[in-house]
C-alpha cells in the first residue's frame, strides 16, 4: 500500500461525481427569499411549534421531487430520515393521488420507488445510519434531496444520557452535524431538517439575528438550543406559524431567512387535501 | 385545571375510534386497508413496497430510565472480539492502540488510515465496518441482524418482539390500546438539565414504537391548561410533549353536571395528520355506553 491508495475513489463514486446532481432550483420558489434557491450544498432548517405545517411542507417537497417530469415534478430521488415516527405514508399517497393526472398503481409504484425512508430511534443510531448511507449517495446519482424530520427529536434524551458535561451531551448531535455537512458537500445534496420549538424565547435572544426593520414583522419564538456545529451549517432558516385569523383553521405563515445575505421573505400558505397550497 | 375538560391524543385513527376499527396487518397492511369511514381518507388501491428501511428498527430503548445506558461507554457499543467476523482480540488491541474503542469510533475513522496503521487488510476493513454497523445498529450492542455486504443497504434482521413491549401488551390483538392519564412530568428540573423531560420523551418514544410495530392505536389522556399569555386552551405537559401525538381530540363536558339541557359533551378534532381540524361531534355519555350523535357544525 502506498500513496496510490490515498484518496482513492471507486468507479461508481467517480461517475457520480462527474455526472452531477440535478438542479433543485424549481423545487419550491415560495420557500426562499431569493431566486435560484436551493442550490447544492444548502442546508435549510424548518423551525416552529407543533401543528404549524412543517411535516406537511416536507410531504409537498417529496411529492414535487418524486413525481415524474411528465407530471410536472422533478423526477429525482429523496432520502427521508424519520426520527420520531412521524411519517405518514397514507398522507403522502393521498397527496400524490391529487397531484398526478393518472394515479394508476403502476405510476404510484414508480413514484414511491424514488423515495427512501429510514427510521432512527436514537442519536447514535442516526449517526451510524448516516455513515451507512454514504454508499447510497454514491450509487444513486439522482438522489439529490436529504430530509431529516426532525433533528431535535433526541435533544432531551441526549442531555439526560450525557452526564454533567454539555460537551458530552452534545457529542452525538455534533458528530451527526459534522457528518451531514460532509455528505452534503461531497455529494452535492440539499438538506432539509426540521427542528421543534421546545424552548421559550428568552428576552434577549434574536438580537442581531434579524434586520431591525423586519424584526417587528417576525414574531419568531426562536431560541437556538442545538449544538454550534448544527447552527453554523444552516444556510436558510424558515419559521412556521399558524395564522390567527378567525374562521381560518388552515392558514399558516412562513418566514424565510437567508442567513448569510440576511434576506427575509414572508409567505402564507394553506393545507388542503392535496397538500400545501400557496 | 378546567373542570371536566380533558385532552385525548389519538394515534392514526379518526374521531370515534372506539366504534371504528380499521383492519391492519403491519405497515403495509395500512395501505391495503379500506377504512370503514370510506373514501377519501384512505387509498383504495394496493401498492407495493416503496422503500428500503436501513437499518433495522432499533432495540435500544429502555422503559425504565434508571436502567438507561449511562453516557459514553455504555451508550456506544465498545468493540469486542467476535462482534463480526474478522474482529479478533488482536485486532481489538491494535485498534485500541490507535484510539478506536467503540463502533462509532471505528465507523467514523478514515479506513485507509486505519488499514495502514493497524495493518488491517483493506478488504476486511470496510467489510468489518459494515458488519459492525449492522451489528451495532441500535447503539446498544444487541444483535439486530445479519451482516450484509457493502452495497445498497437492505433491511437487515427480523422483527423481534421487544421484551418491554411484550410485557406491556401480553395478549396483542388489533385495535385500540388505552392508557390512563399521563403522570405529571416534572418540568426541566434544576441542575439535572431536564431529567424529567427525558423520561417523558423516552415514554413517548416507547409508545410510538408500540403503535408502529404492533399496528395499534395508542390513546393517552392528558389534562388541559390555559396559556398564560394568550389565554387559549392548550394541552398540559408542555411544549416537548405537544409534538408527540399525531392526532389530538379535545373533549369538553357540561359546565354544570347535574343540569339537563345544558351544553352536551363534545369532542373536537384539534390536530390530525390527514384530516382538516375543527370537526366536532356531540357525545351522549349514558349509563351504558358513549353514543355518537350527529356531527356539530364546527365553530370557527
From TrEMBL, chain A:
Source species, domain of life: Eukaryota
PANTHER family: DNA REPAIR PROTEIN XRCC2 (PTHR46644)
GO molecular function terms attached to this record: ATP binding; ATP-dependent DNA damage sensor activity; DNA binding
Species per Swiss-Prot/TrEMBL record: Gallus gallus
One of the record's GO cellular component terms: replication fork
Gene for this chain: XRCC2
Name of this chain's protein: X-ray repair cross complementing 2
GO BP terms in the entry: double-strand break repair via homologous recombination
CDD domains linked: XRCC2 (cd19490)
Residues annotated as domain RecA family profile: 16-197
Entries under InterPro entries matching the protein: P-loop_NTPase, Rad51_C, RecA_ATP-bd, XRCC2
Amino acid at each position: 500500500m502506498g500513496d496510490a491508495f490515498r484518496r482513492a475513489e471507486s468507479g461508481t463514486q467517480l461517475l457520480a461525481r462527474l455526472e452531477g446532481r440535478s438542479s433543485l432550483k424549481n423545487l419550491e420558489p415560495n420557500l426562499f427569499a431569493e431566486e435560484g434557491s436551493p442550490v447544492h450544498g444548502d442546508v435549510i432548517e424548518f423551525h416552529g411549534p407543533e401543528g404549524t405545517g412543517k411535516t406537511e411542507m416536507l410531504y409537498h417537497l417529496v411529492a414535487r421531487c418524486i413525481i415524474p417530469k411528465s407530471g410536472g415534478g422533478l423526477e429525482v430521488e429523496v432520502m427521508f430520515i424519520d426520527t420520531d415516527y412521524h411519517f405518514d405514508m397514507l398522507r403522502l399517497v393521498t397527496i400524490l393521488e391529487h397531484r398526478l393526472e393518472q394515479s394508476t398503481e403502476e405510476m404510484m409504484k414508480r413514484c414511491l420507488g424514488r423515495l427512501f425512508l429510514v427510521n432512527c430511534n436514537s442519536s447514535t443510531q442516526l449517526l451510524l445510519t448516516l455513515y451507512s448511507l454514504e454508499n447510497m449517495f454514491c450509487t444513486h446519482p439522482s438522489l439529490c434531496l436529504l430530509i431529516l424530520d426532525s433533528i431535535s427529536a433526541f435533544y432531551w434524551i441526549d442531555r439526560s444520557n450525557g452526564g454533567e458535561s454539555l460537551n458530552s451531551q452534545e457529542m452525538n448531535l455534533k458528530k451527526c452535524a459534522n457528518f451531514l455537512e460532509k455528505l452534503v458537500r461531497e455529494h452535492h445534496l440539499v438538506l432539509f431538517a426540521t427542528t421543534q420549538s421546545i424552548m421559550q424565547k428568552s428576552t434577549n435572544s434574536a438580537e442581531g439575528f434579524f434586520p431591525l426593520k423586519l424584526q417587528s414583522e417576525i414574531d419568531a419564538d426562536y431560541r437556538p438550543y442545538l449544538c454550534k456545529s448544527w447552527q453554523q451549517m444552516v444556510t436558510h432558516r424558515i419559521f412556521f406559524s399558524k395564522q390567527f385569523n378567525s374562521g381560518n383553521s388552515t392558514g399558516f405563515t412562513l418566514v424565510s431567512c437567508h442567513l448569510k445575505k440576511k434576506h427575509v421573505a414572508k409567505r402564507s400558505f394553506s393545507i388542503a387535501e392535496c397538500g400545501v397550497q400557496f | 385545571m378546567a373542570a371536566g375538560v380533558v385532552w385525548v391524543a389519538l394515534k392514526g385513527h379518526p374521531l370515534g375510534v372506539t366504534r371504528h376499527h380499521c383492519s391492519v396487518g403491519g405497515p403495509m397492511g395500512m395501505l391495503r386497508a379500506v377504512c370503514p369511514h370510506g373514501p377519501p381518507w384512505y387509498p383504495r388501491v394496493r401498492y407495493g413496497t416503496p422503500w428500503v428501511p436501513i437499518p433495522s428498527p432499533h432495540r435500544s430503548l429502555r422503559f425504565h430510565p434508571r436502567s438507561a445506558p449511562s453516557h459514553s461507554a455504555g451508550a456506544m457499543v465498545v468493540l469486542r472480539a467476535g462482534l463480526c467476523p474478522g474482529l479478533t482480540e488482536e485486532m481489538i488491541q491494535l485498534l485500541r492502540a490507535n484510539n478506536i474503542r467503540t463502533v462509532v469510533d471505528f465507523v467514523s475513522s478514515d479506513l485507509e488510515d486505519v488499514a495502514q496503521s493497524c495493518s488491517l487488510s483493506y478488504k476486511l476493513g470496510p467489510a468489518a465496518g459494515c458488519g459492525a454497523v449492522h451489528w451495532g445498529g441500535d447503539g446498544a450492542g444487541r444483535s439486530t441482524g445479519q451482516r450484509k455486504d457493502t452495497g445498497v443497504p437492505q433491511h437487515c434482521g427480523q422483527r423481534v418482539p421487544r421484551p418491554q413491549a411484550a410485557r406491556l401488551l401480553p395478549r396483542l390483538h388489533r385495535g385500540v390500546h388505552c392508557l390512563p392519564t399521563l403522570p405529571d412530568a416534572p418540568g426541566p428540573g434544576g441542575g439535572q438539565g431536564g431529567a424529567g423531560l427525558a423520561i417523558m420523551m423516552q415514554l413517548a418514544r416507547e409508545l410510538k414504537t408500540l403503535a408502529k410495530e404492533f399496528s395499534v392505536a395508542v390513546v393517552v389522556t392528558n389534562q388541559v391548561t390555559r396559556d398564560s399569555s394568550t389565554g387559549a386552551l392548550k394541552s398540559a405537559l408542555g411544549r416537548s410533549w405537544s409534538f408527540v401525538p399525531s392526532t389530538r381530540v379535545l373533549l369538553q363536558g357540561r359546565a354544570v353536571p347535574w343540569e339537563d339541557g345544558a351544553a352536551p359533551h363534545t369532542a373536537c378534532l384539534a390536530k390530525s395528520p390527514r384530516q382538516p381540524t375543527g370537526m366536532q361531534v356531540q357525545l351522549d355519555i349514558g349509563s351504558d355506553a358513549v353514543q355518537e350523535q350527529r356531527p356539530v357544525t364546527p365553530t370557527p
